[in-house]
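Technical note accompanying the year-one report. For the benefit of new consortium partners, we illustrate the data format agreed upon in the data management plan: each record pairs a sequence with a structure-token string. No post-processing was applied to the example shown here.
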Amino acid sequence: MTTFDPLHLSGRIKGIVKSMANNKRPLQQARALYKEEVQALEDVVLDCSHHPCIRIIAGYLLFCFVACCRFSDPMYALDWQVSESGNIVLIEARTRVHKTAHVHSRQSVFLPLVGLGRIFREQSWAKNWMDLREEHLRNASPFILPAFSEQTSEWVNRAMIASEGALWLRDIVATYRITGSSLTTHGLKATLLTWVTIRALGHHVDPGSRAPLTYSRDNAVGLQVPLAMMLRTMADGTFDPDLPRAAQVDRQVNQLLMEVGATDDGFVVGLRPPTAVDEVMSDGTDVDNALDIEDGADQAELDVVCIDAEKAAGLVTQHRSSGVLHFVASHDKLTCGRKISKAYAIVEEDLVVKWPLCRQCRRSGGEELVAQVCPD
């Protein structure tokens, strides 16, 4: 059996390879979500007027945000639980199936996933999300978030991929906020890290101090300060490592509030990012080749209908990505319960086209409504 030897490559091929490598698009960071965009995800999970599938997808995206994890990391997570103490709600899980588990030693150790179950709102998005999963996805799939087909309005028996998640992220956020097309699922992981950096690790020091702070070996001593403080608080009983994690967070928050002379009455103690976050353009790698994600999603028969665009004016709108048609119930809502956003487009006039119709819209609107928009 012969093996490939790079030494046998000609100079011309090596030159082409080098030229292609030099012209490769530089890798750019996914931009962090704005505070209002995170609020939109939380609001969708808590708003009962939205379709359950939309709320479940929004909850999964929100967990990726609070746990600072990749889109695929929680997909096979186990031992989900929500704990609460005072104003703090924590949602936790653990997984052995994640992107960094390349070697056997990592695959045999669980990766903990922990995040805040309340962010900006009084209600717990985590509790609502867990209840929705229990009601609509219990024993229905081995995946935490199966793919959802707009063509059939049903869950698909496969895990949702990051490119689909990016499209859902844009669609869901657009329900409340007008945002650009640069949102990606990797931005969920980067958001908290960006906020923490802006608030604490952003190198916001005067130019004369920057070099000593960067190169001085004595700065490593600072890392021992929080460790020494933790040991002292354990000794005097202020910190108890055996308490549930939610109780630990609640106790430390109350301790900090006492030190500054404040109280947590009347507001949610949670993440408080700055009012604006500098936008970093995304390279869009999460959504490459994602325009046809619905094609071949499953083998179920589709509700394909022939629509007369002139008759459908004002009654039918179309999702820009999937092409699925929806009936319009009001100026801001679809018959299936979703809110109208920039993800939906008006069907062009003087055309007769065949497109899949949202089954939820069809069930809610009835066959009489379908007959109104079909050609004679």
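Partners are asked to follow this layout when depositing records. The longest strand covers residues 78-85.
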